[in-house]
Design goal:
64% of the residues lie in helices and 0% in strands. By secondary structure, it is mainly α. It starts with 13 loop residues before the first helix and ends in a 7-residue tail after the last helix.
Length: 311
């Protein structure tokens, strides 16, 4: 039967309500008798029920948070594809030892990975991890999967492709940011991304914004703030906001450093309504505070607590 059927919302017959009331009364009386006779047993049972039913804030491990020794011993016998899927998945779940096993195997992974639906899903989850190490592992895996040379040569190849193949710019601008984040020519990568952040093509600007967020250097913050506030495209402004607030490779201190600029934007009466909404979302994501859509409340919160580094 359809769970939303009107039949399920009809009142119960009176006789059924009486029988239910009698049963409830009997069980209540039985519980009182049992509690008087065996209070420890009853309290233990209540605690057990609470443990099962309640979703508490304190994590409850299902098993020791260590990478299984059995699996660790089997990793080298796996294909590069199997290694990448297993190690990234275990890293996402914060199993100690898993993420450290990725770097020594990256060279073997280059050119030997397929972006299957399974690996793509794992990578997408990793790029949204709250642990930047896991995001970094995902970037390394993307570089290996696309067989992009992790060197100055690789940067030059991507730059040439960006210039010669406009249709390849979304992928290449993102991948360029990944190389820069992993320590390959970050200054040159920043310069190349900035060449396209004001491009006439919306899609190109959007991926230049994504590339800057992936690059994650201090110098990438200002151009992202500018795109967030001034780009004519809502899509680009939204992606800039997301890159500043949550996605990409910026650290928490980097994100906190732009809060005063976001407060200025929140108080800017000339800002359009949608962008202003994104400003408040960004403030909440960055700070963990909740001051709604009240610019003055956010300013007071920052002056009293945020500016002093207290959350």
């Amino acid at each position: 039967m359809d769970p939303y059927s009107p039949d399920l919302q009809q009142p119960q017959p009176a006789g059924r309500r009486i029988r239910v009331s009698w049963i409830v009364g009997f069980l209540l009386g039985f519980a009182i008798v049992m509690f008087r006779a065996h209070p420890d047993v009853v309290l233990a049972a209540v605690d057990e029920i609470e443990t099962v039913l309640q979703l508490k804030s304190t994590p409850v491990p299902a098993s020791p948070p260590k990478f299984s020794p059995e699996l660790a011993g089997q990793v080298d016998a796996m294909t590069p594809q199997g290694q990448a899927e297993l190690l990234l998945d275990e890293s996402i779940n914060h199993y100690a030892g898993a993420i450290e096993m990725i770097e020594p195997r990256l060279e073997r992974w280059h050119g030997n990975l397929q972006l299957t639906p399974k690996l793509s899903q794992i990578l997408s989850t990793a790029m949204n991890s709250n642990d930047l190490r896991v995001r970094a592992a995902a970037l390394e895996t993307y570089i290996a999967a696309y067989n992009v040379e992790k060197s100055t040569n690789g940067v030059s190849t991507l730059e040439d492709r960006i210039g010669a193949q406009p249709e390849a710019r979304p992928w290449a601008l993102w991948m360029l940011g990944a190389l820069g984040n992993r320590g390959v020519e970050p200054v040159g990568v920043l310069r190349e991304e900035l060449n396209y952040i004001h491009d006439s093509n919306e899609q190109t600007r959007m991926w230049a914004v994504e590339g800057l967020a992936i690059l994650g250097t201090d110098d990438a913050l200002e151009p992202l703030l500018d795109s967030f506030k001034n780009d004519p495209s809502p899509r680009v402004r939204e992606r800039a906001a997301c890159g500043l607030a949550q996605s990409g490779m910026f650290t928490e201190p980097q994100r906190m450093s732009i809060v005063p600029r976001l407060l200025d934007m929140a108080e800017d009466t000339g800002l359009d309504g949608q962008t202003r909404t994104w400003v408040f979302h960004a403030l909440q994501d960055i700070t963990g505070a909740s001051q709604g859509s009240d610019a003055q409340a956010w300013r007071r919160w920052w002056n009293e607590r945020g500016a002093n580094g207290r959350r």
